[in-house]
């Protein structure tokens, strides 16, 4: 193959390295753009008793100061999900009831930032301060309610606002309680995973103007342009057709931009004032007034026979969705559904609630619940291996699903008809990872000296590739007058490289130089529908659509060439740049393109491909950690991390490797230090890069990667996803390594020196 | 107030508020490569050169730049292009939002350090945060780039 599996350069790479103006705020389309600032609530739970904006409005340069009295009174969710969204409609544009420190109280637009900030100080608000719910452990049935009124839900998601329940999940195969009784060994852990910040480098932002057709033009750094349009249409009460969304290059997203965090405010201001406006979130707002990963408490039990055969898996969880339920039911669902089907079991169960609290809402973040579930299940697996005296790698190899096996919890299963795992090289990933890290020689520990010990740990994980039976993407390919193609899609490249990977697939099918295809994916007026960049769907779902479109284009070119060469399609041999007939005549793509657009041709070839999967083939990663523990301070340093991934066919080796390395790095951050912390009064304490630490260049220099490819028969060229699965293994593997180094099993993330040291002191009595 | 700054070799007379930081002034003047990633001088995105030395322009008062020479990546496009090839070979760009500051830091390091070790590179570049790549690919690109210049 010419392009698949090759290290093709990223299509936008050169522009990015040279710092060209390609991001939302670089594309100013108007002078005199109003600058928007938000007045935010200082209390975790309060009701606005009175609000007076008259002084602010009287200021020179203040265009508007909107309160709950001035905005559409409609309930909605900002979650980027296909309609009808599973998340509860529990938000309003501005609400008298403000539910977390940072919740929006008033929207001010002014001629410049300085004036807007000054105007915020001139708004007078009186609050009735209410008792907040700040602790996940006491949220359920707390007498303080985050949502006193039951919100509308499109499905029965088990939302019961009178108990602070945002959503409920219960799934069980077999009878877990019965089977657990028959097990020789049952491991059990209570795990806590923290809220994690996305910390993408480009903060949330959007700008809005009205165009010559009177349409609202929204330029936004978003992963979900089509969902944003639907949300804005519903909230503003204007038809979708009156909204255009432009998605330029994104400065990272990681799921944060799968929620329509910022678009609403400039859209509303421009809709009301008819003047262009923009909002740029500060880093402080990006940390504290957006979304984070759901913090969770997970009780996990794993039962096995004495030979290590797993018989039952039981996971009960509470998830902290904060003040609003964006992605609450779906993230919660994924926790079990992307972990239970890793292993065979006689019975398995996943259940619990996502709960409302008076904290910043949680939302989508790379891994989307699987990260939390993996930490719990894999930590319990490692504990079980200890109890049984079986090597943790062996324990996995004994119990993993193989290609061809079925599992009722695999995405795409229907009752009585479990989905089939059609591709898996996870066992090979484990074998390769063992060799890379030197498992057989070093596990469980190598003592360096009196002070330092190296521990070794491992974990495995799975994710999905798109959402079975829900995600659907379409791609267009157009043959232009110059004989080159335009690939038109909306997979929302946010840095991961979907534009490039999809170009590779189109070039491979169309048998032309990749430079002969241009890609466009930034204007939803012209691109076909795509849910956007989430659920690990770009390569798999949109990729399959691109292949179908390219095949359609080939067929159209063949038929057109036959007509032009006065023969039938069966006599045509498609050859990319040149199309030949069996009789020896030929015509180039360029000629076809030009003829079609001239008087003789009078046509334009536009091909279409659509895909939606009945299953969601899981990619896998086996992660192996070497952690050097300082036994005097408890400090843990990752001194080697070997990650081996099965993403099916690797479409682009370079981009895949960087996705893997980048995900592992984020996972190391989550394992060791990243932590969204609230003060006792509900204010976020970690709202800068000074207080919220993400990995920096000096933290590690040791992520090693490899790929073990399976072939996914439903995938484009055999490919599966990769973007999310990469973040899941570091936390459990590092926790395991720390345990093997010093005997302290940390079950609450992050694994700080304090926890390790205190654990060691406690162990030593 | 008015400040006289040479930006990328061009003399400019720019207007700025007294308390304004250089990153904002430069963006307003059209040097859009300059990105702001934090409010605390801790991410490195806004790195430009003042008199050939890398500084965080979000923490450098515009008034201080009066009479000085500023270089943004718009002023070193050829050098950036040469480095871009090494980034492309590693697939190290990802979202690219940190890259203006990152590249300005790499090019400054190239002038300042002779034959840096891995640790010296990491130390010099430590202030340049990146959330996408996990840094490994960028380090590989930097090393190969420096190697090629020998």
Q: How would the blueprint of this fold be written?
A:
The complex is a heterodimer of chains A (765) and B (150).
Chain A: H1 13-17, E1 34-40, E2 46-52, H2 54-57, E3 62-66, E4 97-98, E5 104-110, H3 113-121, E6 124-129, H4 136-139, E7 165-173, H5 176-181, E8 185-193, E9 205-210, E10 216-220, H6 225-236, E11 243-246, H7 264-273, E12 277-280, H8 283-288, E13 295-304, E14 310-322, H9 328-337, E15 347-356, H10 370-388, H11 392-399, E16 406-407, E17 419-420, H12 426-437, H13 439-442, E18 445-447, E19 452-462, E20 473-479, E21 485-488, H14 498-510, E22 517-520, H15 538-564, E23 572-573, E24 578-581, E25 586-588, H16 589-596, E26 606-611, E27 620-630, E28 636-646, H17 653-672, E29 703-707, H18 730-742, H19 753-763
Parallel strand pairs in A: 1-12, 10-11, 14-15, 21-22, 28-29
Antiparallel strand pairs in A: 1-5, 2-4, 2-6, 3-5, 7-15, 8-13, 9-10, 9-12, 13-14, 16-17, 18-19, 19-27, 20-21, 20-26, 23-24, 24-25, 27-28
Helix pairs in contact in A: 6-7, 9-10, 10-18, 14-15, 17-18
Chain B: E1 2-7, E2 10-15, H1 22-28, E3 47-50, E4 53-56, E5 69-71, H2 77-90, H3 99-112, H4 118-125, H5 136-148
Parallel strand pairs in B: 1-5
Antiparallel strand pairs in B: 1-2, 3-4, 3-5
Q: What structural keywords apply?
A:
heterodimer, A: 765 residues, alpha+beta, Aldehyde Oxidoreductase, domain 3, Aldehyde Oxidoreductase, domain 4, 3 domains, seven-stranded mixed β-sheet, five-stranded mixed β-sheet, 29 strands, 26% helix, globular, B: 150 residues, Ubiquitin-like (UB roll), DNA polymerase, domain 1, 2 domains, 5 helices
């Amino acid at each position: 193959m010419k392009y698949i599996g090759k290290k093709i350069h990223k299509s936008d790479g050169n522009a990015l390295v040279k710092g060209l103006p390609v991001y939302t705020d670089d594309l100013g389309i108007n002078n005199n753009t109003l600058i928007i600032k938000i007045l935010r609530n200082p209390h975790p739970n309060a009701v606005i008793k009175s609000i007076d904006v008259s002084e602010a409005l009287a200021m020179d340069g203040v265009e508007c100061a909107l309160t709950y009295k001035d905005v559409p009174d409609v309930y909605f969710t900002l979650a980027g999900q296909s309609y009808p969204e599973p998340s509860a409609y529990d938000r309003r544009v501005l609400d008298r009831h403000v539910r977390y420190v940072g919740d929006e109280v008033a929207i001010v637009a002014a001629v410049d930032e300085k004036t807007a900030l000054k105007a915020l100080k001139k708004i007078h608000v009186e609050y009735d301060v209410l008792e907040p719910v700040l602790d996940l452990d006491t949220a359920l049935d707390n007498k303080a309610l985050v949502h006193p009124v039951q919100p509308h839900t499109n499905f029965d998601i088990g939302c019961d606002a009178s108990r602070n329940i945002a959503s409920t999940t219960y799934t069980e195969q077999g009878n877990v309680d019965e089977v657990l009784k028959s097990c020789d060994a049952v491991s059990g852990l209570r795990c806590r995973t923290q809220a994690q910040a996305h910390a993408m480098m480009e903060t949330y932002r959007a700008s809005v103007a009205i165009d010559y057709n009177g349409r609202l033009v929204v330029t936004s750094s978003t992963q979900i342009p089509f969902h944003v349009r639907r949300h804005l249409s519903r909230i503003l009460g204007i038809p979708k057709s009156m909204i255009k969304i432009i998605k330029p290059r994104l400065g990272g997203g990681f799921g944060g931009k799968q929620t329509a965090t910022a678009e609403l405010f400039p859209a509303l201001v421009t809709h009301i004032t008819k003047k262009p406006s923009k909002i740029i979130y500060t880093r402080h707002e990006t940390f504290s007034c957006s979304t984070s990963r759901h913090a969770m408490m997970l009780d996990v039990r794993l039962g096995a026979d004495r030979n290590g055969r797993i018989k039952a898996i039981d996971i009960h969880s509470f998830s902290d969705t904060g003040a609003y339920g964006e992605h609450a039911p779906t993230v919660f669902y994924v926790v079990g559904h992307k972990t239970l089907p890793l292993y065979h079991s006689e019975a398995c169960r996943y259940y619990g609630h996502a709960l409302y609290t008076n904290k910043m809402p949680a939302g989508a973040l790379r891994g989307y619940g699987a990260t939390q579930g993996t930490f719990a299940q894999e930590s319990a697996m490692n504990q079980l291996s200890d109890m049984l005296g079986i090597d943790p790698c062996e324990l996995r190899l004994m119990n993993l699903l193989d290609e061809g096996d079925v599992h009722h919890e695999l995405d795409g299963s229907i009752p009585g008809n479990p989905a089939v795992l059609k591709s898996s090289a996870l066992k090979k990933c484990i074998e390769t990872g063992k060799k890379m890290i030197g498992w057989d020689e070093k596990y469980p520990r190598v003592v360096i000296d009196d002070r330092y010990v190296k521990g070794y740990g491992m974990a495995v994980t799975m994710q999905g590739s798109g959402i079975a039976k829900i995600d659907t993407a379409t791609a267009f390919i157009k043959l232009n007058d110059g004989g080159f193609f335009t690939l038109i899609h909306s997979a929302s490249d946010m840095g991961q490289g979907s534009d490039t990977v999809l170009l590779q697939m189109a070039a491979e099918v169309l048998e032309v130089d990749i430079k002969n295809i241009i890609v466009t994916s930034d204007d939803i007026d012209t691109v076909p529908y795509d849910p956007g960049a989430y659920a690990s769907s770009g390569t798999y779902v949109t990729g399959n659509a691109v292949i179908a479109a390219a095949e359609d284009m080939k067929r159209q070119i063949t038929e057109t060439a036959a007509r032009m060469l006065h023969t039938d399609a069966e006599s045509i041999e498609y050859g990319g740049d040149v199309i030949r007939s069996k009789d020896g005549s030929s015509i180039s793509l360029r000629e076809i393109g030009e003829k079609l657009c001239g008087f003789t041709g009078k046509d334009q070839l536009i091909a279409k491909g659509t895909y939606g999967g009945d299953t969601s083939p899981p990619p896998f990663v086996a992660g192996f950690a070497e952690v050097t523990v300082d036994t005097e301070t408890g400090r843990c340093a990752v001194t080697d991390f070997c990650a081996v991934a099965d993403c099916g066919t690797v479409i682009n080796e370079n981009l895949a490797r960087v996705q893997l390395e980048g995900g592992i790095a984020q996972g190391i951050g989550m394992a060791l230090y990243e932590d969204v912390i609230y003060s006792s009064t509900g204010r976020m304490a970690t709202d800068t890069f000074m207080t919220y630490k993400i990995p920096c260049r000096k933290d590690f220099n040791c992520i090693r990667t490899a790929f073990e490819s399976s072939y996914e028969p439903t995938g484009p060229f055999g490919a599966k996803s990769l973007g999310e699965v990469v973040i899941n293994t570091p936390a459990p593997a590092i926790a395991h390594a720390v345990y093997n180094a010093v005997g302290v099993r940390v079950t609450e993330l992050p694994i700080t020196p304090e926890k390790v040291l205190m654990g060691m002191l406690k162990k030593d009595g | 107030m008015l400040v006289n700054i040479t930006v990328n070799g061009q003399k400019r007379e720019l207007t700025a508020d007294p308390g304004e930081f250089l990153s904002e002034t430069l963006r307003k003047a059209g040097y859009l490569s300059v990105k702001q990633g934090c409010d605390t001088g801790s991410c490195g995105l806004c790195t430009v050169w003042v008199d050939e030395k890398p500084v965080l322009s979000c923490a450098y008062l515009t008034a201080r730049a009066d009479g000085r020479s500023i270089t943004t990546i718009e002023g070193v496009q050829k050098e950036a292009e040469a480095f871009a090839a090494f980034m492309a070979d590693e697939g190290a760009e990802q979202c690219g939002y940190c890259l203006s500051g990152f590249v300005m830091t790499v090019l400054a390091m190239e002038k300042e350090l002779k034959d840096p070790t891995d640790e010296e590179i990491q130390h010099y570049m430590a202030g340049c945060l990146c959330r996408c790549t996990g840094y490994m690919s960028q380090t590989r690109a930097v090393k190969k780039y420096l190697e090629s210049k020998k």
